[in-house]
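User: I'm preparing a small set of examples for a lab meeting where we compare how different chains pack in three dimensions. I only have the primary sequence for this one, and I'd like the structure in token form so I can line it up with the others. Please keep the answer compact; I'll paste it straight into my notes.
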Amino acid sequence: MSSMLSKSNGYDMSKYSYPTDDGRDLRLDFLRGLIMLVVITVHMEYYSFFSLFVWERIGLISSAEGFVFLSGIVLGIVYKKRIIRDGFKSSALKLWKRSFQLYRVNLFVILSIALLGLLPFVDVFEVINWVPITEQNKVFPLYPPSGTSWFNIVKQALLLRIGPHQFQVIGLYVGLIAVAPLILYCLHQQKTVWLIATSCTLFWINQNYHFRITGALFEQGFPTLTWQLLFIIGMSSGYHQETVLGTMAKSKNKVLIITALCFSLAFLTLALNNPNAVFWPLRDLAGIDEAFYHDMYMSWFQKSTLGLGRIINNISLFIVFYYALTHYWVPINKLLGWLLIPLGQASLYVFILHVYFIILFSNTPFGSYDNFLVNTAIHTITILIIWAMVKRQFLFQFIPR
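Assistant: Understood. Below is the structure token output for the 401-residue chain.
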């Protein structure tokens, strides 16, 4: 261990710190696993112990931003090494192959749910409709009505114009991975500033004109020209890992860490004062006027349009978490690493499986917004079963990770 710690690149490492080496960064796997835990909890819309912490409680953020941002970071790290080892052409082909794999996964999930819906004893309402959690009287269909021909269903599936809302961010990911070779080329050619400037310009354009360039269903919640910003910032950060992530981890960069912490605490305070918070028993104690909060949220923190406040919240919280994991890795890893790291290393696998667990539990009499203990048990059981499936590598030869 001491030899590993000696290669700390200037980090103020202690006996609790992350043992820095040139291998896989388990801190990122840990954070991706945390994102998967949030995904499961939020998409299985039951009021439980877990719900108290994940429905925009620690900040005005969601799992989707973390998933896209962290995916970009990991790709940047991995493909910088790959392009040096195998060349750009081979790296680009691998990325396109991955994009096509994700596309096939999308088709499988979409069409398998359509087939399950034909079975009279299976209720797929939760995944073929979107019901706003705060407006249960509104139902937005995500699949064609009963009686639609299979030709039209398959055609819409091929264009990703139907599908469960719980899986739509993967549709966005298909497109982002498809253009990742271009991003990688810019980074490899040392055009990072130009790349980020272009990304910010596209983001600004879409804030004003709201283009939905693919016509796919996921564009409603995750417009590509908007969400590409998080992905490109993440990929650039991963490609320049030593400079960007290294800066976040160093104790001497106190101004950065303290600033990020102050922002995170400010956003935490805002989140806890949300007068319309979902699954939060203390919302009646909120100290901010409801109308003011709504206007502020829509201007700065709206999810689909990635409000600037939401982006700052995500980045500042990532800095705080990454710093904490770097300097207090041993106790944090001992407490939660056994659970979160496997989930993070098989994040696509987890994402796929959780959709079918939603269907499974929606076909039981146990799920209820009012039964806190039963709902906590449902979330716990789902998380632990999926974790056990990952550890056992169940169907790994068929389900991508």
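A couple of notes for your slides: The first strand starts at residue 129 and ends at 130. Confidence is low (pLDDT under 50) at residues 1-12.

User: Perfect, thanks.
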